[in-house]
Amino acid sequence: MAFSPAPDHPAVPARSAGAVDAGSERRSGLLLGLGAYGMWGLLPLYFALLAPAGPVEIVAVRVLWSVVFCVLLIAAGRQWRALGAVLRNRAAMLKLSLAALLIAGNWLAFTFAVLAGHALEASLGYFINPLIVVLLGVVFLKERLNRVQWTAMGIGLAAVLVLTFAYGAPPWIALILAGTFGLYGLVKKKVGTNVGALAGLTVETAALAPLAAVAMVWLGATGAATAATHGPAHFWLLAAGGVITALPLILFSGAARRLPLSVVGMLQYVAPVMQFLLALLVFHEEMPAERWAGFGLIWVALLLLSADMVRGVRASARPRRRRDSVTAGHAPSA
């Protein structure tokens, strides 16, 4: 970089356009990430508005309208070629179909938890999720853990035991949510980065659409469906599930491209914190001392994991900065 100091003033490096662009990208990425996790954090409020619809109907309608919304976005963005490439890739289709079943199970468990008055346990599931992801990395990807990560895993196990005592049974809802979402992420990792977020979600929801249609027919035949019997406001609130499903994923995809991994890792706690506060302050769910102890242990484990992740990111960045400085030192002057 060339410097152009004014006479009698110390040399001050000029702020490059690249630095300005990087700062702008980071700010926009942060806003996109907060938007995505904020929408996910407010999902319990949305589900509460859908009464008297049950979990199966909410998920079925969510799937069907997600297909419609995704196809509209594909058409608006002229991404038919990208979608066609995924549809012709048999291996990707099989993995996305498995991912679809996992995310459907996750949606069903989360919706049931919120409607049944277990929003606290639902938030616990997403607090546990990073620990499950680490465990899946060890089991399926043969990753090795350092001492801090093993300590975090041990504290997480202790938290589950404390919460088992608190609930009188293992926190199955939280474990199912963490497990299905962790496995979903693992399968999506196997799909690779060649499949875009929108094309992937379109295929996943389309794969679930026949099951969702059958579920709606069954609910209609048994008189349990509410979409067409509780007025237009209720119908359109249910239909909004398509937008509420696709939009945060698109926002998150944009954030992940603009932000460092460490920042994305920190943002992931926004949603469960919001869900936890909604359960406590809006839904007034009980939180006795033993549950506070269990949640507290989980939070300690997450702090350890987060600190270790930040340390790892900084350590990997140091050699890159040294290489950049060496390269800059040998660059021809402008």
Automatic annotation (TrEMBL):
<protein>
    <submittedName>
        <fullName>EamA family transporter RarD</fullName>
    </submittedName>
</protein>
<feature type="transmembrane region" description="Helical">
    <location>
        <begin position="30"/>
        <end position="53"/>
    </location>
</feature>
<comment type="similarity">
    <text>Belongs to the EamA transporter family.</text>
</comment>
<feature type="transmembrane region" description="Helical">
    <location>
        <begin position="98"/>
        <end position="117"/>
    </location>
</feature>
<dbReference type="InterPro" id="IPR004626">
    <property type="entry name" value="RarD"/>
</dbReference>
<feature type="transmembrane region" description="Helical">
    <location>
        <begin position="259"/>
        <end position="283"/>
    </location>
</feature>
<feature type="transmembrane region" description="Helical">
    <location>
        <begin position="295"/>
        <end position="313"/>
    </location>
</feature>
<feature type="transmembrane region" description="Helical">
    <location>
        <begin position="172"/>
        <end position="187"/>
    </location>
</feature>
<keyword id="KW-0472">Membrane</keyword>
<feature type="transmembrane region" description="Helical">
    <location>
        <begin position="148"/>
        <end position="166"/>
    </location>
</feature>
<feature type="transmembrane region" description="Helical">
    <location>
        <begin position="123"/>
        <end position="141"/>
    </location>
</feature>
<feature type="domain" description="EamA">
    <location>
        <begin position="28"/>
        <end position="164"/>
    </location>
</feature>
<feature type="transmembrane region" description="Helical">
    <location>
        <begin position="59"/>
        <end position="77"/>
    </location>
</feature>
<dbReference type="Pfam" id="PF00892">
    <property type="entry name" value="EamA"/>
</dbReference>
<feature type="transmembrane region" description="Helical">
    <location>
        <begin position="233"/>
        <end position="252"/>
    </location>
</feature>
<keyword id="KW-1133">Transmembrane helix</keyword>
<dbReference type="InterPro" id="IPR000620">
    <property type="entry name" value="EamA_dom"/>
</dbReference>
<keyword id="KW-0813">Transport</keyword>
<keyword id="KW-0812">Transmembrane</keyword>
<keyword id="KW-1003">Cell membrane</keyword>
<dbReference type="InterPro" id="IPR037185">
    <property type="entry name" value="EmrE-like"/>
</dbReference>
<feature type="transmembrane region" description="Helical">
    <location>
        <begin position="199"/>
        <end position="221"/>
    </location>
</feature>
